[in-house]
Design goal:
The protein contains four helices and five strands; from the N terminus they run βββαβαβαα. It is α+β, with helices and mostly antiparallel strands. It has one domain. Strands 1-2-3 form a three-stranded antiparallel β-sheet, with helices on one face. A two-stranded parallel ribbon has the order 4-5. The radius of gyration is 17 Å and the shape is globular.
């Protein structure tokens, strides 16, 4: 009898994103105005960014007037109000209203938020994929 044991990642989870199933982890990266990474936190892929929004905003610190740029996963009235309460500028990408066209200005705004920082990190530094197995190792790679 041959027993094969696969290296199962206990912390990794499945998620469905952009029409594809993905197994692994998701990282939330905090950068400064120049695009340099301040801090990164890694979670299982099926964890919603909404549950970690407050935690990620606290990474910014008490810097009043700083813009918090975030993707559409955190677009909600409650998160916008939380930023205003901490005197931070709302840089959360806007979602397209259901059944309506997104304005040209909102499209440009969303592109300006994401492309500059994260496009470069994914293209140049390979931030989209990890070579390691396990939550701690993946977190240290980011």
């Amino acid at each position: 009898m041959i027993v094969t044991q696969f290296n199962i990642q206990k912390d990794a989870r499945w998620t469905f994103k952009a029409g594809k199933y993905t197994y692994g982890y998701s990282s939330v990266v905090t950068t400064n105005a120049n695009g340099l990474i301040n801090k990164a936190t890694t979670h299982p892929a099926n964890d919603s960014e909404m549950t970690h929004f407050e935690e990620n905003v606290k990474q910014v610190g008490n810097q009043k007037g700083v813009s918090v740029l975030y993707d559409k996963g955190a677009a909600s009235q409650a998160n916008s109000e939380a930023l205003k309460a901490q005197k931070l500028r709302d840089g959360i990408m806007r979602k397209k209203p259901k059944g309506k066209q997104m304005s040209h200005w909102h499209k440009l705004r969303n592109k300006a938020i994401s492309k500059r920082r994260f496009g470069t990190l994914k293209r140049t530094y390979g931030l989209a994929r990890s070579c390691y197995i396990g939550l701690e190792k993946v977190a240290s790679e980011v």
